[in-house]
Amino acid sequence: MARMISYEKKDTPIHKLSGFTKLVFFILWCMTSALTFDTRILILMLFMGGTIYAISGTKWNQVSGVFKAIMLFMAINLVCIFFFSPFEGCKIYGTRTDIVYLFGKYYLTREQLFYEFNVLIKYFTVIPSVFIFLTTTDPSELASSLNGVGVPYTIAYSLEIALRYIPDIQDEFHRIKNAQEARGIEMSSKGNLFSRIKNTASIIFPLLFSSMERIEVVSNAMELRGFGKKKSRTWYSRRKLTPGDFAVLAFIIIFFCISMIFTYYDGSRFYNPFI
Amino acid sequence: MKLKFGIKEVVALGIGTALFVVLTTVQIPFFIVPNTALQPRMAVLAFISAVFGPIVGGVAGLLGHALGDAFFYGWVFPEVVVGAAIGAFANKFAVTEGGFADKKKIILFNIVQIVANAIAWIVVAPVLDILIYAEPANKVFAQGAFAFVGNIVIIGILGTILLVAYSKISGKSSDLKVEE
Fold this sequence. Notes:
- The structure holds 2 protein chains of 2 kinds.
- By secondary structure, chain A is mostly helical.
- Chain A has 10 helices and 2 strands.
- Chain A folds into 2 domains: 13-138 and 242-275, no CATH class; 145-236, no CATH class.
- Chain A has helices at residues 13-16, 19-35, 39-55, 60-84, 88-93, 110-136, 139-148, 153-182, 193-224, 243-264; strands spanning 98-103, 106-109.
- Chain A starts with 12 loop residues before the first helix and ends in an 11-residue tail after the last helix.
- Chain B is mainly α.
- Chain B has one domain: Arp2/3 complex 21 kDa subunit ARPC3 (Orthogonal Bundle).
- Chain B is built from 7 helices and no strands.
- Chain B has helices spanning 7-22, 40-52, 54-68, 76-87, 90-93, 103-133, 137-171.
- The longest helix of chain B has 35 residues, at 137-171.
- The mean pLDDT of chain B is 79.
- The chains are: A mainly alpha, B mainly alpha.
């Protein structure tokens, strides 16, 4: 099974940015992508995303497993959109140009193709940003920089624990799965629905209960060290925001505003090449 | 309501989120429409919410989904609804005190989860998909309906079993008893 995407230490300009900067960039970037349907902005974002991905030095094998899963999902999703609503594009763009008649009530139209192309590149603008964020952000540093901008440190610490324990729990998951398979419990897609739920339960039971124990152990350890006794705490990995951080923050805020103005100035979030 | 946010909740939120993320890869295909496979992680989220309350449940759903598959943001919020709603009744369930094993609690838990899932998957998720991706309404409502059915099945079966089992283990007193 594909390993989850996780942080890898490298020496690139992206890694040097503060976790807070990257988080703000990531959120605003995703919001831009969510709000706009303007093909020109999406294509620009696609190129920018690709460039940043190249700079971040992320290796293909770090993300390929997840990427393939998304591709499969996306293919099914696009086909579903077509079968549920073959004229969604015509509704949006207000014209209809048939390319070819398929069968039943299904016509392939240029508007539909263009609309589905937009949905596709919308996903593609987000995917690299998620990859980059996850592979270049040091969890400890992110937690400390979030606390640095006013997030309560208990919440920041929860996030850090989550990121810190994902690989551990994943290893444990694989151990339990292998053990259960060795005992002859079938994990593949054979068998009916109910027996598959039962087989999944045979992994989740031990995993969940060992996690409950882990919660107990970790929280006791933290209590012994006096966690949460004071209003603030210091961080080993705290970094000050550098001029580079401010430049990136300013850039993404300006980019967000301009895209919004550019998208909505004609009153519609769609770019319509058919008129 | 359990609104306390102590050390245990901090850790539970972290590890609960991690569990949710790891279990993202475990899916039981149920129907080909995307986003509607049976998700055992939802049962785990229901479990965590029922034990640790609405804040842990809601935020674990949000962070877990955001980290696990940040690609479908319209679908982040339904999990928050489910986690927070089930968590709101955490005190009533009394899972760690060993009180969950009776029928009334199980029925209450399932009513709560069905209502929460209905709001989450038939209202919140499709509306967000329409707003963000301008996807066809009939497609997203069909998807939402499948997700609703899938989630109540998995939480109803797996979630209930997990809670009953855990409640039995953790509630057991190890003290000595006077023999009668």
